[in-house]
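for the writeup, i need someone to sanity check this before i put it in the appendix. the sequnce is what the collaborator sent (i think, or maybe the updated version? ugh). structure was predicted straight from it, no edits. if anything looks off just tell me and ill rerun, i have time this weekend
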Amino acid sequence: MTDTPGVAPPTPQPTATRDGVPVAPLAGGFLPPYAERLRLIADFPAPSAEDLAAADPAAAAGAPFAAEALTAMEAWEAAFGEPEPTHTLVEDRELPGPHGPIPVRIYRPEPGWAPPTPSPATDAALRAGLVWYHGGAFMGGDLDMPEADAVARGLATRTGASVVSVFYRLCTGGVHYPVPHDDAYAAYQWVRGHAAEFGIDAARIAVGGASAGGNLAAGVTLHGIDDDAAPWQALLAYPVAHGGHWPTPSEELAARLEQMPQILRFPTDMMAAMNTNYLGAPLDAGAGAPAYAFPGDVVDAARLAGWPATYIENCENDDLRASGEAFARQLRQAGADVEVLTCAGVPHGHLNAVGSPLTAASLDRFAARLTRPV
């Protein structure tokens, strides 16, 4: 498969984000605390489509591993330390949706908490808001996983912004696209209509997500543009932006992928199986996927016109970095304001890591986007 906008080397790594938050140079491998655990997974092969089909969605966010490999991956993904302290009030709700109720978890700062980098408040004490979608290959994950719960707590604590974490319907038991997208978009529209109730400035509602959740956030963004209801920003962590038009990795990324433990890879057959499960049918590579399903498959830049300011943070040791980098180039071709960088020394899904300073640093960078004025 080829990269529609053309293969290009990754943008040189900056020393800081536009908001002044530090960015480490590429490591050419794994940084601590991951480096010390590489021995646990070094000898396992890459997962396959058959592994994905046999995966238990309740185990490790649908991780496609047999018993021995799953044990090794659970050790690899174990907490590195205690969760960082947070200061949030949490409320579980169910929102109305076209396929039934949508569970969400709403995070707001504790009364009296002074965030270290606050989102600017309006005269009515309204701050930015974020609608967030977890990852899990469209078939796993939930509101309790760190990529959902710890991220939401961390961002609300850092900024005072409210975060609405969405548990969209997973692609198991016969569920396929457009159901997860419909849930994601319905939740976003509900937040737009109830923003002030949760201390959110309706002019500063961002959407964001990680991996499959980054895909959903991008689809919600495009849908919002079509409905004249675009979000303020899109904040995407290692997103799956492409389906049929999978990008070719840069030479640097291709070399990195060959050198890293192969159990961390996303082989072509497994990606195809994941996308087929999401869509409910194999992709027609010629026609591409529906635009809201895989916005990166949109080949006409004009179709992405009106895209809001976007921040994309990829992982250095990750096949999906090719998708995030290519999508950034596509959005720039469409005239969007895009900032893209690579989190050095981490594997795919690093926002799930508890007690890692590298995860905390990523949250600092995402938080800085929420502290921007309109």
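The CA atoms of residues 231 and 368 lie 17 Å apart. The radius of gyration is 19 Å.
thx in advance!!
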